[in-house]
Amino acid sequence: MHIRRFDHDYGRRHFLKSVAAGVFGGGVLMPVWDAIANTGDPSKAYPDELLSIEGYTKGRINTGDEITADNVDLVKELLEPIKYQQIKTMGRRLKIVPTTRDIMRLSPWEYMEATLKNAGQARFDERGNIVTLQGKPWIGGTPFPNATSALELYAGLTMTWGRHDACMYAIREYDLSADGDVQFNYDCGWAELSPIGRVSMNPKPYLPGRENKLRYQSVFFTRPDSIKGTSFLNIWDYDQNTFPELYGYVSAFKRIRQFPTDQRFEPLIPGSTLYLSDAWAAGDPLYTWGNYRVVSRGPALSGVSGGWNAEHPNWEHKTHGGPKGKTFWDTQVEFVPEAVVIEAEPVKFPRAPVSKKRVWIDARTQLPIAMVSYDRRGEPYRSFDGAYGLYESGGKSFNDGAHPYWSWAHVHAFDIQTGRMTRLEQVREIAGHKTMVNDAVIYDRYLTNAALMRIGGSD
């Protein structure tokens, strides 16, 4: 007989009490990263009720079940409000898979090793930027694994993004009307490189001469012909009080121009509901938002492990739901023992169409699993939810050096006020460009103004 040490509502009471007291530390029975450091298994930090969907719902929902409009009210509190509405009224479905207990399957291997190695080495400097105890730029991994405040959590999220030293994601984007029709279909690439906090690529932990930069990031489009060659490059200063530099190449004009970077709540291309501000739920410098606070803690359902579709040669995903059966990606979700919900307000955007955003962060990994923004009236406006995965399934794998690649797999960006949906998926290849990770060619090929012009076909 298994004797329970804690009653069924122990975790719920703990979360409510900690938020009311203004105290945050991931875990219930012990700090979650202490449990991870000891065994690699975060489950020791949580009571039985928070270890499975069966335990949480007392068997009313089980692994292998599908969440639909018929049973979604049983798990309403595990979902952000817009995702609940999508299931309840638009035909979205979620397939439940087992909760992942091996933390090394929930982020890149080298990144997690660096998090454990560098724990306790981060602090804020006088400008509020994350530095080492010696005052140098950050050296790699999550800076505050046992974060004790909303700011520590969000600062780490803003710094890390894709958690690789460099990536180039090949992407297919589909922009749908409220009637469920695909109005725009784009092929694009999204490249990222971190010149600091490097854990996989040499030189480590910094690129010499670029220690004052946080990241280089670009996006470019290869299809359709009307937008082919259009590209944008963001160069982030390490100082999180400063807006990035934003450059763009517009193929119609065949030249590079610099754009204002505080207009981050507008789509880059026609039809999209995705903004620069949305990237990784932390697309803006940390201190352009403010009043960070934890508003709730509790379990969640999210796609943190099974997003990769190994069965399709180009990793493409199936769809369902909505008026035409193609509004939502097929999504596998699992029971997450603890998600921390952080609220923030746009303090350096006087014309922002949003009044605040709420971001759900997995306390085990500090990854963003969902975001909802609110309009100036305080009404739900837009949502951003993605699925991650280790690219290893059914005997197939796509490797990042010695280990299977870990990354995001697909994203929904939804405007609940207009009913318009943008779906994105990471694929193996778009015309002439393949998904790459930690490859030295990424910077020269995708992350300079010369690269933008070359992609645009102007040289």
Automatic annotation (TrEMBL):
One Pfam family named in its UniProt record: DUF1329
Family matches, as CDD domains: LolA_like (cd16329)
UniProt xrefs under InterPro entries: DUF1329, TAT_signal
Protein name stated in the entry: DUF1329 domain-containing protein
